[in-house]
Amino acid sequence: MCSIILRIEDSGIFIGANRDEMLDRPWAAPAAHWPKRRGVIAGLDKTAGGTWMGLNEHGVMAAVLNRHGSLGPAPGKRSRGELPLLALAHPSAEAAVSALSRLDASAYRSFNLVIADCEQAFCLSGLERGMPVVSELGPGTWMITSGEPNEMRLPRIARHLPKFESAAWENWDLLLADNTAPWESALNIPPHNGFGTVSASLMALPKNTPPSWDFAAGPPHEAAFAEVILPF
């Protein structure tokens, strides 16, 4: 279960995210990993060839999260890591949502796909049937994990969303690094049965300046955030 937090303001959209994954699943830090996808910077899942989070030259961000009970692949299902790449083929969040809202959600294990630019943010929930359910995220602070946006019955959201709501975005790195117990509601998950938090991101999509992305290539209480070089 990954986590993504968005603050939607008049000045733009500001994002924090932790990636939780099997510790032995190989990956590479965000870069231009796909020669045929010009203008796309994203992390690379070396197992399936997709990504968990990326950004394109138009300032569109896309990130995918597993919904409850759907960790890992399943026979006959496509990799969810292709979904952010499909979204990043579009020039705006609205255009990406228009295209991906028509895909066959039954082709994938259940997912939450978050798409944003400096103007708008959306969550597309794939429930393994029909088409994804589209939710537009309005002004304020949103946290998405394995269920619905800001679903306070989920322990992680109930524990951490109020902290993000009250903190300045510039201090979100400290919140993402919180690995304190209990494990069931931890945001930065210590290694447990071969699973845990493996990386973190802070991304700014301001309206009047270019986007920025800082990436921690490890659990964020151990790995420092470093700037991702964006060639656009």
Tag the structure with descriptive keywords.
232 residues, mainly beta, Penicillin V Acylase, Chain A, 6-stranded antiparallel beta sheet, 13% helix
Q: Supply Rg.
A: 16 Å
Number of helices: 4
CATH class: Alpha Beta
Overall average pLDDT: 97
CATH superfamily: Penicillin V Acylase, Chain A
Major pleated sheet: 7 strands, antiparallel
Terminal CA distance:
31 Å
- If strands are numbered along the chain, what order do they take across the biggest sheet? 3-4-5-6-7-8-9
Backbone structural class? mainly beta
Give unreliable regions as ranges. Answer: none
Q: How do the SSEs run, as a string of H and E?
A: EEEEEEHHEEEEHHEEE
Q: In the CATH classification, which architecture applies? A: 4-Layer Sandwich
What percent of residues are in strands? 25-35%
Might you state the CATH topology name? Penicillin V Acylase, Chain A
Helix content range = 10-25%
Structural domain tally = 1
Shape: globular
Got a strand count?
Answer: 13
How would you sum up this structure, described in words?
This protein has one domain: Penicillin V Acylase, Chain A. The chain is built from 4 helices and 13 strands. It has helices at 82-87, 93-100, 155-166, 172-176; strands at 3-9, 12-22, 27-31, 40-45, 53-56, 61-66, 111-116, 121-126, 133-136, 140-144, 195-206, 212-216, 225-227. The strands form 2 sheets. The chain has a 7-stranded antiparallel beta sheet with strand order 3-4-5-6-7-8-9. A 6-stranded antiparallel beta sheet has the order 10-1-2-11-12-13. The longest helix has 12 residues, at 155-166.
